[in-house]
Amino acid sequence: MKSKRNASLLWTVAAVYNLRFHLMVSKCFTPKGETHPRLCM
Fold it and tell me: pTM of the entire structure?
């Protein structure tokens, strides 16, 4: 039971990081992203 919970938690964390990564990349390649050069690093 505990391993199942850990697996779902891991998937949730992975999804959140994946979403944040996509947002970071989209900001990096949009003209508005130039105002946030720190996000591209």
Answer: 0.47
Q: Return the domain boundaries, the chain.
A: 2-40
C-alpha 9/C-alpha 18 separation (Å) is: 14
DSSP 8: H
Which DSSP state fits 36? -
Cβ(39)–Cβ(33) below 8 Å: yes
Structure confidence by residue, pLDDT tens digits, 3-37: 888 889 999 999 988 888 877 776 666 565 555 55
> Quick check: 36 and 27 in contact, CB under 8 A?
yes
